[in-house]
Fold these 4 entries.
Entry 1:
Amino acid sequence: MAKLAPSILSADFSKLAEQVALIEQGGAGYVHMDVMDGAFVPNITFGGLVVQSMVGKTKLPFDVHLMIERPELRIHDFATPQTEFITVHQEACPHLHRVIQQIKDLGIKAGVALNPATPVETLDWVLADLDMVLVMSVNPGFGGQKFIPAALDKIRQLAQLRSERGLPFLIEIDGGVSLGNAKGIAAAGTDLLVAGSAVFSASDIPSRVRDFNNIIR
Ligand code: DX5
Ligand code: ZN
C-alpha cells in the first residue's frame, strides 16, 4: 500500500503547523521536508531549526530530504525524535557509504536520492544498506515542475533489483506528482509519493490528501 508524503515546500510557511495538521487530518503518511542550501540546488528553504520546531506539532513522522552539499556536517540537526528518514543526494556525497552509516548510527532510517541524470547502478554497492531510494522525477530545487516520465523506468528497475536481491528498501518518488499520474506511479512499485503543489494548492487540503489516498491505495 503506497503512502502520500506531502512536501511542505509548497505550504504557507507563515502557518506551517496548521498546514501540517491539515495533511494529517486527510490521512497523509509522512510530512516531507525539503532542505535546500542554495549551493547544491539554486534555492534556499529552511534548516534544522524549522524541522526541530515541528516536533510535537503533528503525529506524522518526518521524511527529511537534504538537497545540500556536505550533508555529513549537518545530519545531527535533522535527527529529531520524529525523524523517520533522512535522505541525502548521491551526487552530493563522495563518501556515500560513510554518510549512510552516520544516519543509521543516529537511529534514523537512511535514504539516498538520485537526480534524473544519475543511474540506479551508482547505488549498487550500498543498496543493501539502504532503507529508501528516492527517485527524483524533476530536477531538484523547486516545486511545481513537470514530471519526467523516465523516472517510472527507474522505479521499475529498482523494484526489480529489490525483488531479485531480496532487499527491504522502500522506493519514493519526488517531483511533479499529481492526481493524474499517481496511479501509474504507484503501479510501477513506488511506496512513497511526495507531492507538494498538488496538495497545498488545493482549497480543501484534507480532501485533496484523501483523493490521493483513494488513487494510490
Ligand atoms: C523538489 C522537491 C520536492 C518538491 C515537489 O526539489 O524535492 O519535494 O516539493 O514539489 P511538486 O510536487 O510541486 O513537484
Ligand atoms: Zn523532496
Entry 2:
Amino acid sequence: MNMYDSARMADLLRPLGYDMSPAPQGADMVILNTCHIREKASEKVFSELGRLRPLKDDMQQKKGRKMILAVAGCVAQAEGEEIVRRAPYVDMVFGPQSFHRLPEMVAKAARGAGAVLDTDFPAESKFDFLPEEQASQGPSAFLAVQEGCDKFCTFCVVPYTRGAEYSRPAADILQEARRLIASGAKEITLLGQNVNAYHGEAKDGTWSLARLIEAVAALPGIARIRYTTSHPKDMTADLIEAHRDIPQLMPYLHLPVQSGSDAVLDAMNRKHRAEDYLKIIEDLRAARPDIALSSDFIVGFPGESEKDFEATMDIVRKTLYAQAYSFKYSPRPGTPASVQDGQVGEDIKAERLARLQQLLITQQTAFNQSKLGAVLPVLFDRQGKKPGQIMGKTAYMQSLYIEGAGQELIGKILPVRVTGAYQNGLAGELCTKQDAVMSFYSNPITQVSA
Ligand code: SAM
Ligand code: SF4
C-alpha cells in the first residue's frame, strides 16, 4: 500500500514540475513514506532523517537551494508532533489520508514558515482528489480498492493510523484499472488493509470483492489479478468460488492466520478459530487445487505459552505454505495488547521465531522444488541485478529469473521451463511453443498460456 501511495504522491507532484530522482543527493524534495506496524519500522525513520539532514544542509550551503524534507505515512500519522519536536528541520509531516493536499503543503513549506503538519482524517476521500494521470507502474501494477480497518485486532495500529474502513466506488476502480492496462499493466493487484472486506458502491447496488474481481477480469487486456491482504473472517463463499471460476485470478493467496492457538486468537480479537481457518484452506483447495498459500504469523503475543506456540507450528504443518512472513510481537503504543499482562521475554520470542522460520523455510523450499522441470507461464516485469538477467513472476508468486535475455521480454507472459529451485525463487529457461504444448497436455494445472 505504501508503494501505491508513493506512486500517487509522485502523480500529484508531477504537475508542479517534480520528477522522480534516483537518489536523495541534490533532490529538491525527499519524502519518507513510513510504516508504523512494528517498532523497528518506525525507529528507522529517525535514523534515516539523521542521514538526510547533512544532505539538506549541504544543498542550502553549496547551492543556496532548499531541500524540502517530508515524513508521510503511518509514523507521521501516529507520531507527527514528536517528529516535529525531535527533527525540527523536517518541513512537512502528513498522514496516509491527507496526502492529496500535497500541492498546498508544498506551497506552504516553500514559504518556509515552520513545519507543515497535516495528520487529519479529512471528511473528503483523498481518492476524489488524486489526478487521473498516472505514471506507468509497468507490467505489474497496484490498485488501492479499500483502505483502513474496523477490526481492531489488539496488536495492530492500522485502525488508528489508516482510519476507518472505506471502499472505493466500483466505477472509479474500473476506470483506474483501464488506465493502468493502457499504460502497460498485465497484472493488477487489488490492495486494501482488509481487502476482502471490500463492499463498494456500484450502479446495481453494493459489490463484494468477488464481484469486483469479475468486473476487472472482463476488462480487455488484463491477464492476471491478485488481491491482498485478506482476513479469514471475510473469506466469503463467492470469493472462494472466484478462485475456481475466474481464470485471471491467480492461484495464490496471502491469508494471515497470526497464530494457531484459539486462546491467542481470542486474545488478539481475530474473531475466528484455528479450525475455521483450516476449513477455509480446505474449501480453497477444493475450488483451486493448485492454490499456493502464504500467511503472516506473530510469535510471543502476550500470554502465548509453549503449548500455544506448538499450536501455531501445528497449523503450519497442516496447511503447507508456499511462503510466509513471521514476526516477533512488537508492542505498539495505544494498542490494547501493549498493556496486557503476560508479555513474553525477547529471548523466548527470538527462539520461537527461529523454530517457526525454520519450518516455514523448509516448506517454501519444498514448494519451489515441486516446480522443478515444470513449464510455467511467467510474467517478466523487471531487469535482474546481473546483466542479461530478466526477472518475472510465476502464477504462484514465485520470483523467477532467466539469463541471457533482452529487455524486450519485459511485459510479456511466456512459458518457462524451471531449471533451478531455491528457497527464495526459481531459475528457468524460455521454452519453445512445442515444449509448452507438450507440458500442457501432460500437466494442465501448470496453465501454460503460450
Ligand atoms: N489485515 C491483515 C490481517 O488481518 O491479517 C494484516 C495487515 S498488517 C498491516 C500486516 C501484518 O503485520 C499482520 O498480519 C501481522 O502479522 C503484522 N503485525 C501487525 N501488528 C504487529 C505487531 N504489533 N507486532 C508484530 N507484528 C505485527
Ligand atoms: Fe490490523 Fe489486519 Fe487486524 Fe485490521 S484486520 S486490525 S489491519 S491485523
Entry 3:
Amino acid sequence: MFNLVIFGPPGAGKGTQSAKIIDKYKLAHISTGDMFRMHISQDTALGKRVKQILADGLLVPDSITIDMLEEEVQRNPHATGFIFDGFPRTVTQAEALDTFLEGKGEKIDLVLQLDVTEEEIKNRIAERKKVSGRADDDEDKLIKRIDEYFSKTIHVLPYYQNQGKVVKINGIGQVEGIFGMICAAIDAAK
Ligand code: ADP
C-alpha cells in the first residue's frame, strides 16, 4: 500500500491536486470535508450534528471526525492505498491515524505540504466563492478557517516532520507544473 496525506491551508489546491493524483496512481480518495458536505446535503444524523460547525468555519470535534474516517477506510478493503485530503487537521487526529494504520500493518508513506501564502488563499477563495456556493467561503468564515489552520492544524506539520515524511511543494503556479512536482515526490517515495 501507498498512503499519502495532502496537507495545506484552505484554498491551497488540495482537492484539485488530489483528483489528478487519484487518476494517475489509482489511490482511494478520502476527503473529510467532502464527506461532511455529503452528510449535510443528505441530512443524515451526522450531517445534522456538523452543519453549523462547518457553516461557522470551525473544526468538527476529533472523535466524530476520526470515527467517520476510520469507517471510510474500512469500507475500502481492496484499496491499494489512500490519499487523505483535509485529514489529519489536529495532532490528535494524526496520532489516531498512525495507531489505526499500525493496527492494519500500514503507515503513512508521504506527506505533501502545499505551500501558499495567506494572500493567495484569500484571493483564490474569493474567486471560488463565485461558483462553489459554499457558505464557509464567505470572507468572515474564511478568516475563521484560516485561524483554525494556524492555531490547530499547523502543528500536524512538525508531527510528520519528526517522522521525516514531509515534502514541501510550492503551491503557487500552474496546476500542471505543481502536479509535476507532486509526481516527482511520490515516485521518489514509492
Ligand atoms: P478547505 O480545505 O477548503 O478548508 P475542506 O473541504 O477540507 O475545506 O473542509 C471544510 C470543513 O469541513 C472545515 O472547515 C471543517 O469544518 C470540516 N472538516 C473537514 N475536515 C476536518 C477534519 N479533519 N477535522 C475537523 N473538521 C474538518
Entry 4:
Amino acid sequence: MDIILLGPPGAGKGTQAQRLEQQRGMRQLSTGDMLRAAVKAGTPVGLKAKAVMERGELVSDEIVSELIDAELTAMGASTGAIFDGYPRTAAQAASLDEILASHGRSLDHVIELEVDEDALVERITGRFTCASCGAGYHDTFKQPVVEGVCDSCGGTEFKRRPDDNEETVRTRMAEYRAKTAPILPIYEERGIVSRVDGMASIDEVTGAIDAILG
Ligand code: AP5
Ligand code: MG
C-alpha cells in the first residue's frame, strides 16, 4: 500500500509517518528529511538546497523527484511507501505518477491532515528531535518520558531545525497554500482523498488514519 500524507508545515505528517512505520512496517519517504541529510553531508544537492530551505521556499521539482525515485529503487516492492512532504507541486504530482508506474506501484490513499494554521506556529517552534535516531518530540505536547532521554533509543542529544522560526514558518505556509494545496483536486478526481482532523490529539489522528487504511 502506497499513501501520501498531505498537510501544511507542522500538520503532523512526520509524526504519523513514524507511527505507521512502527505499526505497519511501511517506509516513511520524507523529502524534507532527505534534503536535511544532504545539507548535513554537504552533497551537491545539499549545497543547492540549504539556502532555499532556510528561506522556507521550495527546492526544485527535479531534485526531489530524483530523491524519491532513488529511494523507491532501493526499497523492496512489498514495502508500502508513505510519502511525507512530497509531492508539493503539480509537476511533482505528475512525476510521482510516472515514478510509481515505473516501479509497478500505484497510490492507494491521499490523507489530508486538516489543521488550523495559527496553532501550527506553536507546534513548529516547540518541535525537537533526537539527534541519534530522529524520533520527534515537542516542548508542550510530547516530551520524552524521562526528561533529556530519547524514548526510542536512549540518546541524550536533541536538535531543532534551522527553518523552525516564526518568519520562515510563515513563508513555508504561504508556499503550501500557493503550490501544494492546489494539487488536491488531482487526487479528488480519482476518489482517493480522505480527510482527518489534524487538530485532534496525536493518538486520535493515528486512530483516524488506521480506520482509513483498514
Ligand atoms: P519538510 O521537512 O517536509 O517540512 P514541512 O512540510 O514544513 O513539514 P514539517 O516537517 O514542518 O511538519 P510535519 O507535518 O512533518 O509535522 P510534525 O509531525 O513534525 O520540508 C522542509 C523544507 O524542505 C521545505 O520548506 C522545502 O524547502 C524543502 N522541501 C521538502 N520537501 C520538498 C518538496 N517535495 N519539494 C520542494 N521542496 C521541499 O509535527 C510538528 C510538531 O507538532 C512536532 O513537535 C509534533 O510532536 C507535534 N505534533 C504533531 N501532531 C500533533 C498533534 N496531533 N497534536 C499536538 N502536537 C502534535
Ligand atoms: Mg516533517
